Amino acid sequence: MAIESLEPSTALITSDIVLFGLIAATLGAIFWLASGPTPFWKKFFAWVPALLLCYFVPAFYNTIGLIDGESNSLYNPIASRVLLPAALVLLTLSIDLKGILQLGPKLLFVFCAGTLGIALGAVVSFQIMEWVHPPAVAGDTWKGMAALAGSWIGGGANMVAMREVYQVDATLFGQFAVVDVAMASALMATLLFLANRSAQLDARSGADTRAIDEMKARLAAYEAANARIPTLTDLMVIIGLAFGLVAVAHAIANPLAAWFAANVASAAQFSLDSAFVWVVLLSTAAGVALSFTRVRNLESAGASKIGTVFLYFLIACIGMQMDFTALFDRLELIAIGAIWMIVHVLVIWGAARLVRAPMFYVGVGSMGNVGAAASAPVIAAAFHPNLAPVGVLLGTVGYATGTVFSYLIGQVLRVMAGQ
């Protein structure tokens, strides 16, 4: 939430309109450069994720005094209260639960084991660091871990949602964003390495790969039948639907939060007296409900891409509140992330060995959690280009479940932290 300063801002840019243009232009430049217009930028973004720059460049603006990230209305109410729930609607309405079920029980089992590994990893890493180095998990560290759980079960939208629900400090959030990118990048590099050796690994473990071959043919036919160029009507319907549902969510959330505050004794403990918590939950529920209707066909017109635009603008608005110089003050958070990720890998690997699942299931199941719809298709395509939609399907499931599961993980961590 934006905090009004008691003193006039000394930043060079004080106009919200000019700030909006600067953030928009910055995001456009980052993504254009990430497309690799020259060999230098292609190599640069092979090592530096565009997502990290979306945090760091606005943070740099704030650090040098070009902008004042907290003395504006760009983040709150525009980005956090409007764009975030709109992104949740658009990112969840594309979920094809029927298609996911057709992928087979083994894949779903491995994917769910990956989610369990994330939840278990949060508890284990917190407890180990409390034994080894208590200052690492002191104070509000649990809040940052809850936000990170949102990212590793769902995606960026869920991470930001948990940031708002638990009111995570902007600098702490930025520090965990570094942990997020570092651990997710290490996992992706490992999975890409294993993808090139999946045939040998599957042969050695005796995995059955026939279901994968069937998937390749079915998904190739689906992609060819549903792809289309969006029309103006498509885009207007997508925008109208997203913001219309956001309005409904806000209209319901305020009286609902007030009712819980007045009638449920433990409402504050579980943040059920917060209108924003209900906005997040209602927006997610609306998107999931729409995924069972013909409205989900808007995905072929780019619904999730528009939702991702909203999400990245929100991420940049969070970044502009960061104290860039303080981002690396707590490197022990990397240790928390490393322990957390090791637990996740051990759980999902053990689940795959239990049901003799192929390496593809391990890769896409793991990255479907940690990387969501943004990175899971990359891992899936490393096994075969036609399998990329499998990563999308599993990644979008996380958008629907990430908010609820990470909220519950946050409650467990809150108890462990004694708060």
What does this structure look like?
- With 419 residues, this protein is mainly α.
- It has one domain.
- It has 18 helices and no strands.
- The chain has helices spanning 16-34, 39-47, 50-63, 74-92, 97-101, 105-132, 141-153, 156-165, 170-195, 198-205, 210-226, 232-263, 275-290, 303-319, 332-355, 359-370, 372-383, 388-416.
- α9 (170-195) runs parallel beside α15, α15 packs antiparallel against α16 and α16 (359-370) crosses α18 (388-416).
- The chain is globular, with a radius of gyration of 21 Å.
- The two termini are 22 Å apart.
- This is DUF819 family protein.
- InterPro entries: DUF819.
- The chain crosses the membrane at residues 12-32, 44-66, 78-95, 107-129, 172-195, 235-262, 274-295, 307-327, 333-352, 359-384, 390-410.
- It comes from Luteimonas terrae.
- Keywords: Membrane, Transmembrane, Transmembrane helix.
Could you name the ranges where pLDDT drops below 50 across 5 or more consecutive residues? 1-6
Rounded to an integer, what's the Rg over CA atoms? 21 Å
Helix proportion of residues, in percent? over 70%
What is the strand tally?
0
Q: How many H/I helical runs?
A: 18
SSE ordering: HHHHHHHHHHHHHHHHHH
Distance between the termini: 22 Å
Structural class comes to: mainly alpha
Q: β content, as a range?
A: under 5%
Mean pLDDT metric: 82
Domains (count): 1
Most strands sheet: none
Basic shape: globular
